[in-house]
Amino acid sequence: MANKFIVATAPHMHSPFSTQKLMRDVLIALIPAFALSILVCGLDALRVTAIAVASCVLVEYLIQKFLFGGKQTVSNLSAVVTGVLLAFNLPANIAWWIVVIGAVVAIGVAKMTFGGLGRNPFNPALVGRVFLLIAYPAQMTSFPAPIYPDYVDAFAGATPLAALKAHAIEVGDANLLNMFAGVMPGSMGEIAAAALLAGGIYMIWRKVITWHIPVAVLGSMAVFAFVVAMVQGGVSPLLYELPVFHLLAGGAMLGAIFMATDYVTSPMTSKGMIIYGVGIGVITMIIRQWGAYPEGMSFAILLMNAVAPLINKYVKPRRFGMASKK
Amino acid sequence: MTVLFYTILTLSVLGILSAVILYFVASKFKVEEDPRIDEVEKMLPGANCGGCGFAGCRGMADALVKQEDISTLYCPVGGADSMKSVASYLGKVAPEKEPMVATVRCGGVCAKRPRTNEYNGSKSCAVVASFYVGETACAYGCLGYGDCAEACAFDAIKINPETGIVEIEPDKCTACGACVKACPKHVIELRKKWVKNRAVYVSCVSKDNGAVTMKACKAGCIGCGKCAKVCAFDAITIEGGLAYIDSQKCKLCRKCVNECPTGAIALKGMEPLPKEPKAPAAKPAEKVVEPKAEVNKESVNEQK
Amino acid sequence: MKTFPIGGVHPSDNKEWSCNKSIEVLELPDVVNIPLAQHIGAPATAKVAKGDKVLTGQLIAEATGFMSANIHSPISGTVTAVDMQPNGQGMRQMMITIKREGDEWMPEIDRSSEIKRQCSLESAEIISKIKQAGIVGMGGATFPTHVKLSIPDGCKAEYLIINGVECEPYLTSDYRTMLERGEELLVGVEILKKALNVEKAIVGVENNKPDAIALLRKIVKEKNFAVVIEPLKVQYPQGGEKQLIAAVTGREVPPPPGLPIHVGAVVCNASTTLAVYEAVQKNKPLIERVVTITGKQLKEPRNLLTRMGTPIATLVEKAGGLPEGDVKVVNGGPMMGRAMVNIDSPVTKGCSGVTVYSGSEVYRMEPSACIKCAKCIEACPMALEPYLISKLAKKQMWDRLEEEHITDCIECGCCQFTCPAGIALLDYVRLGKQTVMGIIRARAAANAPKK
Hints:
The complex is a heterotrimer of chains A (326), B (304) and C (451). Chain A is mostly helical and 326 residues long. Chain A has 14 helices and one strand, in the order βαααααααααααααα. In chain A, helix 2 (43-68) packs parallel to helix 4, helix 4 (96-111) packs across helix 5 and helix 5 (124-135) runs antiparallel to helix 14. Chain B has two domains: 35-90, 3-methyladenine DNA Glycosylase II, Chain A, domain 3; 100-268, Alpha-Beta Plaits (2-Layer Sandwich), CATH 3.30.70.20. Chain B has helices at residues 2-28, 35-43, 57-66, 79-90, 125-131, 147-151, 178-182, 210-216, 226-230, 255-259, 283-303, and strands at residues 100-104, 117-119, 157-160, 165-168, 188-192, 199-202, 236-239, 242-245, 265-268. Chain B has a two-stranded antiparallel ribbon. A two-stranded antiparallel sheet of chain B has the order 3-4. A two-stranded antiparallel sheet of chain B has the order 6-9. At the A-C interface, strand 1 and helix 1 of A face strand 15, strand 16, helix 9, helix 12 and helix 13 of C. Strand 1 (4-7) of chain A pairs parallel with strand 15 of chain C, so a sheet runs across the interface.
């Protein structure tokens, strides 16, 4: 017979999804924020991102090649995504060797130790970031001022959250519109709420992520801030300014849209995603409100990462035909 | 100074308190267990393979200690030595079993059993067996994806990529039976283990009729019955178009091996008998063979 | 627009290759092989032996018990063998081989094309006629139709749902049947309504077949049928019985052993409904069906009215032969069809189409590590967790699998279709489901005598 028959079980068709394509979509979604960070922080942003991506990819490549053996996994682009996200969590003026250390911790310790993509319990970029934050607190918290010529420093050189924590400013002083557009000091990725939102909408449209986690995180943060504002006095501008301030400041957008939605470390059912998202939002706000650090997004996500397997175990979807009516 | 004092005090009180609580809890919930179970467990191989029928060696040790009659319990991995030491420790009679070895009863190597299609799914015999015949036209033989190798706790089974079927290293095999359970085609059988890993067995489990078998695989048993006729020990039975050699009755005389027209009877660890001798040089052999051949003719007549 | 509530995917439908090809009658085959097991349940018992002469439409194998179906000769000629033959998957099963001599039909079969609408039979008589004709679900599940129509005590049918969804990509046999035999099909619906004694009859059609919807609506209006044509939003697996009931009525069939009738619904495939019409009004048993033969690389995709038992190779020839090189020939559609190794195997009652793939589309994607993206959970129409049950099945943790509702799985393939890592989720889920069902059956058998 001239033909060779190929046999496999159904389905004999596959969707256009692949790991690589999903990661590529995440990268595309990061482009607006990246462009804005170059605009605000200058070419330094490009430098830090390039170093972070290159070292993440290199570390993964070397570990795969010399420790794991087997097929190279670099082509699935997940190391690139980790690199970009790590860079987005750093100040633009940070020294190159700190970036490299962050990449080694992110990929080498947080990801490959557990067996590579799909097996890491914690978000690699965040582990890298938190490691650097604790190891190099000074370098990690001094941010360059935006390079706009007519930039007026409203936050005394600190990030809005740090300024608020130090009682250097009142919430009412912050220009919320500027914060939305990214005109504020901060790490490269967190300063551009508008661009991050655009990326999030792109990812939801491309079905890379679902709405559950970002909405749960941001929603619970807003509600928390609203309650805080109510308790603090409940004057009308504060009631909406404080929630909006918290959503725009710090890593809220970056965390909710890109970090918390990391597939590997987040729960898998939609109910679980909401529980996880609310957990992140609440822990973040607790740290922001009463913690020692001005920002708690990274810690909140890492803490909830640890809870994700438990959520997966106990939160099950409502099975078809098991209607709650009965 | 007071800070230091209070710190030490609180920690010490906490420590003592915890110790007391732990002591009471431990003594309250202490499980009285026969200490011999631990000892017996140490004598077992500790492979936790499940070959004895218990979940692990601990379960087996428990049963060995508690049951009066341990003749039904046997650890295939530790074998007679380990059973003897356990029995002498417990003062019971050691169960005896012949050593066994897992045997792959399929000779459908790639050269003999042509591939008719290519399987592109999960490399699992169980998955393949659940929906189609496999990569060859034989619905009975070894599929070659190594479910047995996966199940083997002793690394005794390897897939041979050249033949497309699995091979068992008899010296590593402990006859725990995990592979027998794992094989969806029931190709693997535990057979009597001879010295130097000698073996004679029908290397085919195809129940198809002869013509169908031959079409699928040139090494298949076609159920012709020649081997059964030549066997002097009544060890070979033909059922459903398939010959089977009872390893308890077989004496490794190897006559059936030469009779088989398709070479489906496998011979391991020994040289085959010389073929029908023609040259006078082989006379001594002829003398041995001839009288038995006559016996066979008689038995054939009796059957008729 | 209605659709089912949970999960689902949108595979590209690929119906353009054959949807505009009208149904053609395939030349009669010279030799047919008729498997005795063409349906769910006990295989039929052969009633003919080698050398017997049979007429087209003659009973050649009788249902073995209630959960089984009659089988009739699709051609006239001589029985040459009743023996084991390889099926499409290469497994040998009992088949009756008939060599054709002319085409002489049983005299009681009405072969005219005149549409006979009047039916004065009682419900029980209709069901008995359907049983006689050996009709089974022709969408692929091959559940005997008379069993489905026999409502168990304590249940009442409220809805008759006709499945004109044909959500499987590529296949167009139901679609062509609805377009070309619409009126007869609707008479079939009326007959089924009478058999079930129900008021509401709904034909569910996905709205990627607007002409079928328009045509059926026109006939309903002009000829005054009490049938509702319900357009449904395109989504796979809408043609799954439970999904269709949920889409049309909003009711969810409880998990096994729950049946559609427990929510008052009976679902019947469009082609099956036409077969019911022919059986009841024309005395014609189920001996032929429309089979789509299609594929991107086929020269002439077609919809062929084919006698049962025709070798699938004949259909492939009719469509221009197999493409060069590596091919995958699938009995059914791409989502649930079964790949074949033996295309000389026969067309059976459940064969709604044959799809042929060639080139790179015959191979699966190289699997990589699970990234826990949860797309399989999102896609699962039964709200299971495919990644988990697949993993548990691989580890053979049967107790856990039962707890995770593996028996709910309808094997629609959405999870594996959508998995970005290309993991063969369904391979192991299917294996786990089969094993767990076996365990449940064994347990039921062990518990039965105590009661």
